[in-house]
Design goal:
660 residues, mainly beta, 44-stranded antiparallel beta sheet, 44 strands, 10% helix, 64% strand, elongated
Length: 660
């Protein structure tokens, strides 16, 4: 547009040429020039007798940008009725880029050349009299940083790199009607002020062909991103991709009639879309991709949007088919297929192998999805092959029954429902666990080996607004006793610091099996465990009211020397086993009447108590039978971390009882 202003002034200068010999300088002032695409105010052009010329523009507005005090100086300037020539011109905005141009008035032909060091060249040739009129431009090692001043505000600004290529513009009386361009980007870098959108050493080739007829632009674009790095928060991508697209533009809507996007390591995706630019709204869209590589698709394009989500540490492999149809402001169809996929958590919390999925979702009609996998594991526990069918109706999903093998048992799921309401997802189900051998389960979880089986019933479980709740009680059988979990709720289970609340009641656990599993020594009898008002943060206890006590009833009650030693060690430095030293050296097992130990955890301190008080202390084990033994505790307040340390020592069996 600056060139256009210069040309308008040259026409005026041509009429003043006869007076040049009689004056030292000729000055022409123009109040302003205004059009729909640009404006210039307070324009002053000066022709000097020494053959130079100056053009000053106080304010220039163009392409949404403003410049003040624009100045072009031609060291050599000649003007006649035939042509105007500027030699060795200099723009204050680009002093290192000399400008040369000549314009033939009668033929309306212009040649413009901007050349600098490093073999840099911006060259333009225009013929405005020809039909059609045309402008041809060529670039050679053109430095991209020079374009920064022309870009709209808010876009990342180019810093380094070069452009090479050609541009052709054709037009008639109605205006521009054809654009053809072929540009090669070399080692281009750009960034915005925040650093959240940046490119480094980008090498790419752009081809554009566009024609205008009947108020409609038809364009074809081919972009080949050969190499380099791009960060466009949250995506971080490397080169190797390409795009071919056909588009239409009517001034209001941009219609992507056909596009093919080739993503390195992923595959080919076909796109169609219609975008309302004034409303900034997507009107229609469709997407199709077959045999897409899941590894790169998940790591490069899905995980960056997950932030600290649980799935962000996962990796995927296998292939996928996908199609998507969007209209009337919402998704109409979404079809997804996974083929022999693996889904593995980086923290080894879960894994699925040989996953095959067929999801033909439709907003207009009910459909069914099918899912199967060959194997998996959950926190190290092996999960066997399984398959299920899911009914889909809009944003409501349900599974009538599902059975998932876990070791030699099965996890049963009944009446699973997932639905979206009030801008949030909620789900619910009930189920059970068939008898599962404790020995392989405990070893898989990294626990001491336990005997017996685990089975249970799972009542109504629901999840909504980041909270998982159990309505009713979870019932399990373990160590020949019963386990009841009630008032269970878990807040933000997939977040960085989940919080769990609930109560735990264990009744008539077999002490022999329990103490054998944890190498505690041998205790014969039955035990009840009660944990009330349990609160865990990030799976670590912060508050509870716990009590371990002998079960009521008549049964054999015996305790070994090793168990006495460990219970004494658990009581701390003040605990003691009270029995005659001679008896302790003779007998390996003793009788007891009751075992009681309680802990109320608050603010990192465990307040402890036992069966009954005895002076300043309390009985942990109250003796009974022959020979009998008592174990006393004297510390009522114990640091929770210290108590955990004692438990670890007890399990290792490296502490001795204090005999009185």
């Amino acid at each position: 547009m600056l060139l256009r202003i210069v040309l308008l002034l040259l026409f005026a200068f041509a009429g003043l040429q006869p007076a040049m010999s009689d004056a030292a300088r000729i000055e022409l002032s123009v109040a302003d020039i205004v059009s729909s695409s640009f404006s210039a105010k307070k324009i002053v052009a000066t022709l000097l007798q020494n053959g130079s010329a100056d053009l000053h523009i106080a304010e220039l507005h163009m392409a949404g940008k403003n410049w003040n005090k624009v100045h072009l100086h031609c060291a050599g300037f000649s003007l006649s009725t035939e042509m105007a020539v500027c030699r060795n011109g200099k723009l204050d905005a680009a002093p290192d880029l000399p400008v040369t141009f000549n314009y033939i008035f009668a033929k309306q032909q212009l040649e413009l050349r901007l050349a600098a060091g490093a073999n840099e060249l911006w060259q333009l040739a225009a013929d405005f009299q020809a039909r059609p009129w045309h402008i041809n431009a060529s670039l050679r090692n053109a430095q991209v940083f020079r374009l920064a001043a022309l870009l709209p505000e808010g876009l990342p600004l180019p810093g380094k790199g070069t452009l090479n290529g050609t541009l052709e513009l054709l037009g008639n009386k109605q205006g521009l009607y054809s654009v053809n361009a072929e540009i090669q980007l070399a080692d281009v870098s750009f960034s915005d002020a925040s650093g959240l959108r940046a490119g480094e050493k980008l090498n790419a080739k752009l081809q554009l062909a566009a024609t205008h007829s009947q108020q409609l632009w038809n364009s074809r674009i081919a972009l080949e991103w050969q190499s380099g790095e791009l960060f466009w928060q949250p995506l971080y991508l490397h080169g190797g991709h390409s795009l071919q697209a056909d588009m239409q533009w009517d001034g209001t809507q941009l219609n992507l009639t056909q596009a093919r996007l080739n993503l390195a390591g992923v595959g080919s995706i076909q796109l169609k879309a219609k975008w309302d630019t004034s409303a900034k709204q997507l009107l229609e869209a469709s997407l199709n991709g077959d045999n897409l590589g899941l590894a790169r698709l998940y790591s490069d394009y899905a995980k960056p949007f997950m932030g600290g989500d649980t799935l962000a540490d996962s990796v995927m492999s296998g292939t996928a088919d996908a199609s998507w149809i969007f209209s009337n402001g919402e998704t109409q169809e979404l079809k997804l297929g996974l083929h022999e996929a693996d889904f593995v958590d980086g923290r080894k919390r879960y894994a699925l192998h040989g996953l095959n999925v067929d999801i033909p979702w439709s907003a207009a009609q009910a459909t069914k999805a099918h899912l199967s996998f060959n194997s998996g594991d959950l926190w190290g526990v092996p999960v066997g092959a399984s398959q299920l069918e899911m009914s889909m109706q809009g944003l409501a999903f349900s599974i009538a029954d599902a059975s998932v093998p876990i070791l030699d048992g099965k996890l049963l799921v009944h009446d699973f429902h997932l639905q979206h309401e009030h801008d949030a997802w909620r789900w619910e189900f009930s189920g059970g666990l068939t008898p599962l051998s404790m020995s392989p389960l405990s070893l898989a979880l990294g626990w001491p080996e336990m005997q017996g089986t685990l089975s249970g019933m799972i009542p109504h479980v629901s999840y909504q607004e980041k909270q998982l709740k159990v309505d009713g009680a979870l019932l399990f059988r373990v160590f020949d006793g019963s386990v009841v979990v009630s008032s269970l709720s878990l807040f933000d289970p997939f977040g960085p610091a989940p919080r769990l609340y609930g109560n735990l009641d264990m009744r008539e656990l077999d002490l022999g099996a329990l103490t054998q599993a944890f190498s505690f020594g041998n205790v014969q009898g039955r035990i009840d465990v009660s944990v009330k008002e349990l609160e865990l943060v990030n799976w670590q206890p912060v508050s509870f009211n716990a009590r371990v006590a002998s079960s009521p009833g008549s049964y054999r009650k015996r305790i070994s020397q090793k168990a006495v030693q460990n219970i004494s060690a658990l009581g701390g430095a003040g605990a003691a086993a009270a029995v005659q030293r001679s008896v302790m050296s003779v007998f390996e097992n003793f009788g007891y009447n009751r075992i009681v130990l309680s802990c109320v955890l608050r603010n990192g301190i465990c307040t402890m108590d036992g069966a009954q008080a005895n002076g300043a202390g309390y009985y942990i084990v109250k003796g009974g039978g022959i020979p009998a033994i008592n174990v006393m505790g004297y510390n009522h307040e114990v640091d929770w971390n210290e108590l955990l340390t004692r438990l670890k020592r007890v399990i290792k069996g490296n502490r001795k009882a204090v005999v009185q």
